[in-house]
């Protein structure tokens, strides 16, 4: 849109002392003549654009010109930029980068150094170690489907290892505990479901529009769905002292209660944790990931299931 281009040109001119018309034309994929027409429109709107002639010349704004930023305080701007930087670690789209540039452009030059310092005090890097690769492509594909309101189909493998073909109406992309999910209305189940992107493959855009359902994502409905009593099991786990720090990382220091026993020394102390999780294959693998440093006390059937899996692992390595 022309209006978007005009605003973007102003932002670029605010952030740079001077820029050549050819560079602007290449950036926005238009002709140099179109850029000069845009500059005339910007001048007519009261924004002082100046053309500098000769070698090394170009287009710039009058010294001291800044966009009006009275609606936001410095702390509010810092919070916005910090949030944008965090989102960009997992989804570095060009629109995010442009928005960051817009935010930074409305900071007065005299406050720029302090602003940079404040926005670097708190960094949330939600990207995985190493390269993300195919996940970025999947995110871009799903983001487009959400924006355009198109149905998609994909093959999905759930936590129990069951593989199904799904047709859904994608509503929201969710980043939760360093994993991406798609919150979508499943046409087969006729209800909203949360799909983990790592378990999705063969995603196809059906080019078939749908009307978005009236769902309030601000209330984080997937949390209620996941933690509903009928879907979760209460576990009592006993952790060895050597795994205390790992248990604290997962469940929090407050969740650990030292086991009352006169038999164990401080070095051999045990800690009891009560947690609520849906019971599935992921849960069994999660418990087994602690190895010999955890023991399931309750419920009895999960204790038996872990014993059964551990025995089969032992048999495999004989």
Automatic annotation (TrEMBL):
Entry annotated with the keyword Transmembrane: no
One Gene Ontology MF term: DNA-binding transcription factor activity
Keywords assigned: Transcription, Transcription regulation
Record-annotated HTH deoR-type domain positions: 2-57
InterPro entries found in the cross-reference section: CBASS_pafABC_assoc_protein (IPR051534), DeoR_HTH (IPR001034), HTH_11 (IPR013196), PafC-like (IPR028349), WCX_dom (IPR057727), WH-like_DNA-bd_sf (IPR036388), WH_DNA-bd_sf (IPR036390), WYL_dom (IPR026881)
UniProt keyword annotation of Transcription present: yes
UniProt-listed PROSITE patterns: HTH_DEOR_2 (PS51000), WYL (PS52050)
The name this protein goes by in its record: Putative HTH-type transcriptional regulator YobV
Taxonomic source organism: Cohnella abietis
């Amino acid at each position: 849109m022309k209006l978007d281009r005009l605003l973007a040109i102003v932002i670029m001119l605010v952030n740079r002392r001077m820029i050549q018309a050819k560079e602007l034309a290449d950036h926005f994929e238009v002709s140099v003549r179109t850029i000069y027409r845009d500059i005339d429109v910007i001048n007519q709107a009261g924004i002082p654009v100046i053309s500098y002639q000769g070698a090394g010349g170009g287009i710039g704004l009058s010294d001291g010109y800044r966009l009006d930023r009275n609606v936001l305080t410095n702390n509010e701007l810092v919070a916005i930029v910090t949030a944008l930087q965090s989102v960009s670690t997992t989804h570095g789209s060009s629109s995010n980068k442009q928005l960051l540039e817009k935010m930074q452009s409305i900071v007065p030059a005299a406050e720029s150094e302090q602003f940079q310092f404040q926005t670097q005090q708190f960094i949330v890097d939600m990207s995985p170690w190493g390269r993300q690769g195919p996940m970025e492509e999947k995110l871009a594909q799903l983001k487009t489907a959400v924006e355009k309101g198109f149905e998609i189909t994909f093959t999905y493998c759930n936590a129990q290892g069951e593989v199904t073909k799904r047709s859904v109406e994608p509503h929201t992309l969710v980043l939760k505990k360093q994993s991406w999910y798609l919150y979508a209305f499943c046409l087969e189940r006729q209800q909203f479901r949360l799909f983990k992107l790592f378990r999705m493959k063969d995603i196809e855009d059906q080019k078939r529009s749908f009307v978005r359902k009236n769902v309030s994502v601000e209330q984080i409905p997937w949390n209620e769905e996941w933690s509903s009593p009928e879907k979760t099991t209460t576990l009592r786990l006993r952790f060895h002292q050597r795994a205390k720090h790992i248990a604290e990382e997962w469940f929090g220091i407050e969740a650990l209660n030292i086991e009352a026993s006169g038999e164990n020394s401080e070095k051999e102390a045990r800690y009891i944790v009560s947690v609520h999780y849906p019971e599935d294959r992921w849960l069994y693998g999660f418990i087994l990931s602690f190895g010999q440093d955890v023991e399931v006390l309750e419920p009895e059937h999960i204790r038996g299931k872990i014993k059964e899996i551990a025995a089969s692992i032992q048999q495999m390595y004989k």
